[in-house]
Amino acid sequence: AQTVTQSQPEMSVQEAETVTLSCTYDTSESDYYLFWYKQPPSRQMILVIRQEAYKQQNATENRFSVNFQKAAKSFSLKISDSQLGDAAMYFCAYRSSYSGAGSYQLTFGKGTKLSVIP
Amino acid sequence: ETGVTQTPRHLVMGMTNKKSLKCEQHLGHNAMYWYKQSAKKPLELMFVYNFKEQTENNSVPSRFSPECPNSSHLFLHLHTLQPEDSALYLCASSQEQTSGYSTDTQYFGPGTRLTVL
After folding, report:
1. Residue A101 touches chain B, beta carbons under 8 Å
2. Using CB atoms within 10 A as the burial measure, which of A27, A86, B44, B90 is most buried?
């Protein structure tokens, strides 16, 4: 079974600064997807960024980028130029690439609460 | 409406009540999901419907009963719940392949905050 670990329950960053959130995972599969989701106080789970394991290039979305280290099974999220609206819970998630029973499940970490200091 | 919508946003019910949660996706997806989010616990997948057929039931108690009348709508019928069932219930949808590799991304609704007294 896959597991996802987020070792930082809480983090804070000064507005306009850069912060990195950590995520490690455990799997025996070679093909899979990794995600970062953001959940602000409104509770809506919003996709931030996704990474396909077969791609070596790190995914980027505007101020958000990942450092994907497949051998180390590490998938960290970097937020540049942090804004007040970035304050939220951030969840790392894993999903198998294969269709079929058991593959639909997103395995989530416990989350990291990010605070942005004005 | 766009994306995934859920109603109601808040629900308070007694243990003997019967209520239903509704989810609707406007993304043309063919798979829908119910997740439970409790305090200090990772999100837990409850049910999966793919092409309107239930494909997964992760050992969910029978007091939770899902229904998927079509690929755009998903319900979660609740009866004789327990206080420990109080949580945020999230619905999600995705576009799945019929076989082979999935297309991965699940899009979530805003959730229903359920309180069982």
Report:
1. yes
2. B90
Residue with tokens 């590490």: A74
Condensed to tens digits (0 to 9), the pLDDT of residues A5-26 reads 999 999 999 999 999 999 999 9
pLDDT tens digit sequence for A30-65: 889 999 999 998 788 999 999 999 888 999 999 999
Please answer yes or no on whether B42 and A46 come within 8 Å at the CB atom. Answer: no
Q: CA torsion sign, A59 to B98 to B60 to A43?
A: positive
What residues of chain B lie within 8 A of the CB of A40, using their CB? none
Q: How far apart are CA B11 and CA B94, in angstroms?
A: 26
d(CA B78, CA B90): 14
Q: Residue B96: which of A42, A99, A108 has the nearest Cβ? A: A99
Distance (Å, whole) CA B74 – CA B65:
11
Q: Is it the case that residue B103 has pLDDT exceeding 80?
A: no
The whole-number pLDDT of residue B102 equals 55
Provide the CA B10 distance to its chain's centre, in angstroms: 14
pLDDT at A10: 97
What is each CA distance from B85 to A35, A52, A58, in whole angstroms?
27, 34, 39
Of A49, A51, A44, A38, the residue nearest A83 (C-alpha): A38
